[in-house]
Predict the structure.
Amino acid sequence: MKSLIASVALIVCFSCNVLFAQSIITDRPDQTESSFIVPDNHWQFEMGFSRTSSTNIMTYKYEWSTPSILVRYAVNDFFELRMAPDFGFYQTEDGKVFAENFFMRSNEVGFKVKLAEEKKCIPQTAFIFHMPLHWFTNEYSPPTPEVRLTFSHSLSDRISLGYNLGMEWLEDEYYWGGHIHPNYIFTLTSGISLTEKLSVFIETFGTFNGYDGEQYFTNFDGGFTYLLRDNMQLDLSGGWGFYDYRFGNEHWQNYFLSLGFSFRVPD
């Protein structure tokens, strides 16, 4: 806990040198969702490929996301619709991939609504709601939504700070068909614009289990974004995280690397 508090304090201090001052504002590559809405009557596509290596007591494997996609459409200046399919596959330590290793981990739909404009100490604020599509088609699947409040501070023309607080409901793998429990979400990110096109960010994010309070996921990442045009962006990021389940005395780590491309239409 002390290391987590110290890391958060470091990010807040670093945020005094931060901004995401780009024409296109995306919800990737970090895990902190922005409080900005896509411009009215515009589509925005945010795509990424990632590789995660995980190790625990029982296994060591790789997970490929190929790709993750976020589609956003702005109905007006205050409201956008969202869809987020996520495809991928698992790979064993010796490089093997089997048919059953392919997955569509989530196919979510939802919206983002702007709640407040930034004014002095009040951050720009938005609310995000996502719901997995399988809930609409599977009568045995309980509702497992995700909700977030997103906040953004502009500290100067070159500096900003973003953070999220939220909750997601997950179906217990041992009680499939009705038993769900909440997970609490936190994120904190900051970055710096190195040039008009190139920016860098650092971030901490994670979840903890609201069912028994014994499961914690904590992650740290960082990366770069590069503005190809006002409506096109490349990104590269990577990070490290750890899982702690005190009740079962389980601990493991994961490492991840991601490459992405985002664009908005019409130009």
